[in-house]
Amino acid sequence: MKYLSKVFVCALAVLGTAMTAQATVVTIPDSALSSSNYYYTDTIGGGIGDVVVTTGGGNAANVGAVDGRNDDGFRGPVNLGFTLNFFGNDYTQFYINTNGNISFGNGISAFTPTGPQGAAQPIISPFFADVDTRGASSGVVHLRSDIANEIIVTWDQVGYYSSNDDKLNSFQLVLRGPDYTIPVGEGAIGFFYKNMQWETGDASGGSGGFGGNPAAVGFGDGSSDGEILASSLSDGISGVVNDTHIWFDPNLRPIPSNTVPEPSTMILFGAGLAGLTVIKRKKK
Fold first, then answer.
1. CA distances to 1, 51, 75, 210, 212 from 224, in Å
2. How big, in percent rounded to 5, are the helix, strand and coil portions of the chain?
3. Rounded-to-integer distance, Cα 147 and Cα 84, Å
């Protein structure tokens, strides 16, 4: 079977609600997003980096494909190039997950966010949804790590499950290390969005990229606490983030910005991110 039964999905949802009773979840207002239509890398030049070839998780048939096409896979551990203190823990490595996020400690193959209730790993989620890059017109995931104390992950014109490429999303994560001096108007973490055309995969209850369980934007500590954009998990989330960006300071507070981002340098951040409970499906 390609999907879990509705009964099992409902049972997981009830369990997730019970688990989140004591969780601390901070809502990021949609108004914190600043209008823009570019990647951070568009302002500094140099491109979006190398294609990410997944080596674990997801569908075995296309894990490790040299062109980077993948569904539900991840790559890692990848060296950060700096030590990141995140929720009180130090990390020197991270995982790049096809489904719109990065994580620490292990990769995440899960595709449907039903939180905020706590992903299995600490997570940074610019757009946690069921990305599927196997369609012929879909782009893939890229990593740029040539700038000291900074990594940039880009999901460039990516499609959605199952191999759909009629609608494509383009978004980017900027993550900075402790020796990166942050200019005014920028932050320790940045989410950048260009054209965002879909928000739900077919196995997350969606049809044509919408409906069902839409994408989640935010952060999770792996233990049910975190932060989440107000429109996460709601119909219309793709339109909310379309052609916008947002910077977060070292305490994960959003930074209003009307400035054009430039290359710079960072600070340690040890505050929290939003927990996201996920449901896994079987795929053929």
1. 30, 32, 24, 26, 22
2. 10, 35, 50
3. 16
Q: Which residues contact 8 (CB under 8 A, 6 or more apart)?
A: none
Contact assessment for residue 231 and residue 244, using Cβ atoms and an 8 Å cutoff: no
3-state SS track over 88-119: CEEEEEEEEECCCEEECCCCCCCCEECCCCCC
Question: What pLDDT sits at residue 225?
Answer: 86
Please tell me the pTM assigned to this model: 0.85
pLDDT per residue over 78-103, tens digit each?
Answer: 999 999 988 888 999 999 999 999 99
Q: Residue 27's beta-bridge partner residues?
A: 228
Give the pair of three-digit tokens for residue 67. 């062109």
Where exactly are the structural domains of the chain?
Answer: 6-279
